[in-house]
Task: inverse folding
């Protein structure tokens, strides 16, 4: 029988934990207690489900991609349409959960880090919905390459705080959000956007995102009468992947594949594949796989997808990788670009550049499988935000 | 008895307060850091905290962040820093606390680190992101070697947590005087007073106060409430501002002497 993870200090095997400065420890403990109570509280769950349905627009379809399946000539491909959530990605599932928790804890000010801007938009959205003040920390470099999302956050009433320190991308935005949280910990709730950070975040975000996998399981059982053979999802910090994987973790016949960003290639050093090519370390409050040098200094990551551009990965993925429950592969920028084009033109669905990594792996895997196999791809977000970058590269 | 305990006993016997100075190792370079430490010793500083630069210093404000980046650019790393400390030990017996984040230590290897730090003459370690819940994995190597495990207490720390922390601590307790990152706000004397009182009820360890003290006047106000004060960002900033001055060592030394005078 599998143990329930994480343990009481937030460990998933040797990974996870709560490596945080003392100023934050009481806040993390308070948050964990509030979350555990909310989890057991029927009114909290009912409220969360209400907003998922009436506001986010769930459930999202599990769409059979017929043309793509025929084109590849192998396994049947289903897309879990998280791109159809309000705000255009899976990120809203989590921000709704955390904002409701913040409200319950009497915190009226939320902060968040963002890379692609999807989590920033999802946080700004719930802040507007619940009437909270909102500050979003975003690397200067990301502000440049994800301009449409910056406008969206501002329109929603959030303040976007540019972060110039370090490499001016997602990890630095997270550093700055943590510093800000330390300084205003009494009235502020830090909404982390992925299954990373100190305990209880990896557990809490996983649970809020698990709605993806629960729905997908129900839908595939209804549509096909059986469980899928493969789940494929992209992995930045790992929230969309964990959301899909987690409800299937005990169904051992279902194979799970997390797709990391190989950037220019794993051998070039310019990538974001912490499991495939990193080593174990401690960053942002948890032990996990990191991109780092031999002295424990964390490297910048590189990916064409800003949302995957993070040098760490959620600790439960590190655990799944070590235990063998899930397998992690990496897909390069140009392969993701090609998948972006293929899905757009084959199904009329423009995927986020992050999600395109999952699609790209499916393009390789499906033709090798027989026609009676089933693959579910988590289509974590829509690609409108990436149009400019893609147009530049494709010469549209 | 270790150098830290000895130092506090000596201060106590003469009714004095400790001046603790923080320096980012390798800013502007490691040879300079070595000279600073020796100069601090001569200037009457009681304990030196040597900061190990890290790429992601989430508990530090802009001044120490920038210093860490400069140090890393200059090639500073834990191995070289320990070597530099060993060189200091040929000349000076000033108590030295290694201050930093966990990942550079973890990456070095906890067991190997403990032995190397002891060998270099490090007296205590303060790891910002290693709370009592997680510290066992390092303490099992550093405790047996007699290295002090300096622990942080924040304004947000409850009494119950203080108890847990002091059970785990040795050397001295480091009270974070502001709810914030290093060098970004002024501590309120009233709050510091109340919190030190809280801590004193639960522990007999010496308590030093740091994170927001920048001037001799402030140090003079805070020191009587505790057993010592830490000056960090103010010195780091002074080093940066005067980095091209020929008499840099002297500028920093006279500032340290001023602070020492203000708390005496
Ligand atoms: C559409 C989309 N998918 C995936 C990710 C990666 O995050 P995670 O790995 O937490 O799902 C992001 C992050 O911004 C995103 O916007």
Result:
């Amino acid at each position: 029988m599998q143990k329930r993870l994480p343990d009481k200090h937030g460990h998933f095997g040797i990974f996870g934990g709560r490596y945080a400065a003392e100023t934050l420890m009481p806040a993390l403990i308070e948050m964990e207690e509030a979350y555990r109570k909310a989890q057991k509280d029927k009114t909290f769950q009912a409220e969360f489900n209400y907003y998922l349905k009436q506001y986010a627009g769930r459930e999202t379809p599990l769409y059979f991609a017929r043309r793509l399946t025929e084109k590849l000539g192998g396994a049947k491909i289903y897309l879990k349409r998280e791109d159809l959530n309000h705000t255009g990605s899976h990120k809203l599932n989590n921000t709704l959960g955390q904002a409701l928790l913040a409200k319950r804890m009497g915190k009226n000010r939320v902060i968040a880090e963002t890379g692609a801007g999807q989590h920033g938009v999802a946080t700004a959205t719930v802040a507007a919905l619940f009437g909270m003040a909102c500050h979003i920390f975003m690397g200067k470099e990301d502000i440049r390459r994800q301009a449409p999302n910056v406008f969206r956050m501002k329109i929603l009433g959030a303040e976007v705080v540019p972060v110039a320190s370090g490499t001016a991308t997602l990890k630095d935005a997270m550093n700055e959000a943590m510093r800000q949280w330390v300084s205003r910990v009494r009235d502020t709730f830090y909404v982390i956007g992925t299954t990373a950070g100190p305990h209880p975040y990896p557990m809490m975000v996983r649970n809020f995102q698990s709605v993806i996998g629960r729905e997908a399981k129900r839908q595939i059982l209804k549509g096909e009468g059986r469980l899928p053979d493969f789940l494929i999802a992209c992995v930045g910090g790992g929230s969309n992947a964990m959301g899909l994987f987690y409800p299937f973790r005990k169904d051992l016949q279902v194979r799970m594949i997390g797709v990391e960003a190989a950037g220019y290639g794993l051998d070039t050093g310019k990538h974001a594949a912490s499991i495939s090519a990193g080593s174990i370390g401690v960053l942002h409050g948890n032990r996990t796989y990191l991109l780092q040098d031999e002295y424990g200094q964390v490297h910048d990551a590189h990916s064409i997808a800003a949302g995957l551009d993070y040098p760490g990965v959620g600790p439960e993925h590190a655990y799944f990788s070590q235990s063998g429950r899930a397998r992690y592969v990496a897909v390069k920028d140009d392969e993701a670009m090609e998948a972006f084009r293929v899905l757009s033109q084959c199904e009329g669905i423009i995927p986020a550049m992050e999600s395109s990594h999952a699609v790209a792996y499916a393009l390789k895997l499906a033709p090798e499988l027989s026609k009676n196999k089933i693959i579910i791809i988590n289509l974590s977000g829509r690609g409108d935000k990436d149009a400019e970058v893609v147009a530049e590269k494709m010469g549209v | 008895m270790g150098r830290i305990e000895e130092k506090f006993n000596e201060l106590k016997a003469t009714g004095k307060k400790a001046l603790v100075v923080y320096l980012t190792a390798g800013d502007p370079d490691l040879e300079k850091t070595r000279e600073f430490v020796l100069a601090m010793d001569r200037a009457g500083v009681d304990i030196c905290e040597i900061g190990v630069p890290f790429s992601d210093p989430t508990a530090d404000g802009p001044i120490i962040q920038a210093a860490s980046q400069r140090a890393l650019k200059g090639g500073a790393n834990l191995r070289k820093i320990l070597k530099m400390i060993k060189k200091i030990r040929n000349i000076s017996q000033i108590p030295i606390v290694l201050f930093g984040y966990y990942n550079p230590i973890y990456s070095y290897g906890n067991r190997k680190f403990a032995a190397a730090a002891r060998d270099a003459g490090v007296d205590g370690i303060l790891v910002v992101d290693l709370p009592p819940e997680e510290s066992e994995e390092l303490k099992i190597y550093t405790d047996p070697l007699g290295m002090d495990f300096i622990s942080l207490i924040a304004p947000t720390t409850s009494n119950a947590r203080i108890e847990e922390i002091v059970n785990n601590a040795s050397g001295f307790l480091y009270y974070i005087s502001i709810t914030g990152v290093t060098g970004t706000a002024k501590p309120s004397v009233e709050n510091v007073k109340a919190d030190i009182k809280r801590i004193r009820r639960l522990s007999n360890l010496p308590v030093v106060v740091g994170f927001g003290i920048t001037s001799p006047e402030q140090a003079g106000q805070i020191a009587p409430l505790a057993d010592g004060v830490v000056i960090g960002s103010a010195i780091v900033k002074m080093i940066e501002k005067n980095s091209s001055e020929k008499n840099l060592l002297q500028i920093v030394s006279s500032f340290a002497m001023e602070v020492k005078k203000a708390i005496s």
